[in-house]
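Hello again,

I reread your note about wanting to compare the complex against the isolated chains. To keep things tidy I'm splitting this into two emails, and this first one only covers the full assembly. Below are the input lines as submitted, including protein chains and any nucleic acid or small-molecule components. They are followed by the predicted structure of everything together. The single-chain runs will come separately.
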Amino acid sequence: MTALPLRRVHVPFRVVAPIVVIGWLAAWFANLPLANWVAYDLLGLERGSHIGDAVAFFLLDVPKVLLLLLGIMTAVSFLRSYFPPERMRAALAGRGTLPATVGAAAFGVVTPFCSCSAVPLFIGFVEAGIPLGVTFAFLISSPMVNEVALVLLWGLFGPGIALLYMAAGLTVAIVGGLVLGRLPLERWIEPWVLAVRAGGGATSLDLRLSVEQRMRDAWSSTKDLVRKVLLYVIIGIGIGAFIHGFVPTELVAQIGGRDNPFAVPIVVAIAIPLYSNAAGTIPIVEALLGKGMPLGTTLAFMMAIVAISLPEFVILRRVMKLRLITVFATVVVTGILAVGFLFNALGL
Amino acid sequence: MKVIEVLGPGCYNCHLLEQAAIEAIAITGIEASVVKVTDYARIAAYRVMHTPGLVIDGRVVSAGRIPAPAEIAGWLTPA
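Full-complex prediction:
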C-alpha cells in the first residue's frame, strides 16, 4: 500500500464532466439492446424460455443498477454536501413543532445516513435543544427515504412508485415524530448526553469547500459505496432473475396477495434481518412486483428493509435507554404496517 | 510533534480517513501521531455531528468527509 504517489495529469473539470455524462448516456441507451443481443443472439437462448428470460433480466439489470448508482449517487452526494448537519441543526432549532418535524423529515432525504453518524447527530440535536420528536422524525426518514433506495426504485420501477414510496416514508417519519414528541421520553436518554448539552463553545469548523472538492468527495464516496454494495446487488439481481424466469405468478399472488391478511406482517418480519441491503433486495422486490405482489406489501417490505436496522439500534443504545429504543422501533413498525395495509386496501 | 485525531466510532470511513492521515504525514515528512477517538462523549465535545471527523492539534479541520492526503498535508503545513 506504499506505492509512490504518481503525479496525475490534471484535466480540468469542465473537460471531464461532459465526457463522463456522454459516456454514461451512451451506456444507458446501449444497455437494453446489448442485453437482448447477448442473451438471445450471442448465447442463442430462446425468447420467452425460462432460462432466456432469466439471463436477459440479469444482463439488463446489473449494468442498469450500476449506472444508476454511479451516476445519480455522485450527483446526489455532490448536492447534499451543501446540506451538512450543522446547517440543518441551525435551521431546525427554535421552530414550532410541526414545521420543525416536517423540516427534519425532509432533511432526512438529502442527508446521507450512516449508522456510525447516528449518535453524534443525536447528541448534536439534543445539545441544540431540538425536541426529541423532531430528532426522531429525522432518524426515521434518513434511512427510510434514503437515496440508494430512491434511485433504485426510480430506475427499476419508474418515478410513480419512487415518489409514492417517498411520500409514504415522509408521512411515517412526520407522524412518527409527532407521536414520539408527545410522549415524555427525555428521561430515557442516557444522562451523559444531557451533560454534553451543558458545555459551551462553537465549532471551529469551516464548512466552505470548492466545487471541485465537493465533486471529488462525491465521486470517492460513490466509489466506496458501489464497492461495498456491488456483491449484494449482483446476488440480488441473480435471485430476481431466477424469480423472473422460473417462479410462477400464481405462487407469488397466493402468498403475498391482497387476500392474505398476514402478507404485510410476514414481509416486514422477513425484512428485519435484511437491514440496509436495499441495493441487493430491490431487484428481488422488482421481480416480485412483476409477479403480482401487491404494492402495499411491496412498499412495506422495502421500508422495513431500510428503516429497521438492528445494528443501528445497538449503536443508539449508547445514548438511549432500551425502553426508548423499543418505543421508537414500535412506532416505526406500526407506521410501516399501516402503509402496507393502506395501499393494499386501496387496491393500487 | 503534531497530534492528528480521527473522530469516529470505528466504521469503514473512519478507517479510510486514518489511512489518508497516515499518507499525509508521509507526504509532508513532519512528525505527527495519529490517534483514533472512538468515545462518543469525546467526539461530541469537539462539536462534530458528522463522522468521520479530523482534528489537528485540537482544532476540527473536517467533518463528514474524507479529505485527500494532499489536502490533509496542507493543513499540517500551513503556508
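For quick reference: DSSP finds three helices and four strands in chain B.

B.
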